[in-house]
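name: query_chain
kind: protein
chains: 1
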Amino acid sequence: MTGLVALALASDPRPDDNNVVAGWVGAVVFVALILAVAFILRSFTKQIRKVNAAKQAGVFGEDSEAPERESDETSSHQA
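structure:
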């Protein structure tokens, strides 16, 4: 029993601070995350450009509906 305790105390399971590294798997995961974020930002930018182009083309009809809403509100208040 004393031999097991001495063996457990003799073998330090903690690695040296200079030997702890993430390794290749950590590097690959880090690069993959960077690429994923770059892809998502690129896709988001494309979608925003499409929405802005559609808005300028009048697809959403915001400019034409805004006066109607105001006139509907004024007519409902007058009645």
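note: Helices lie at 2-10, 23-57, 62-78.
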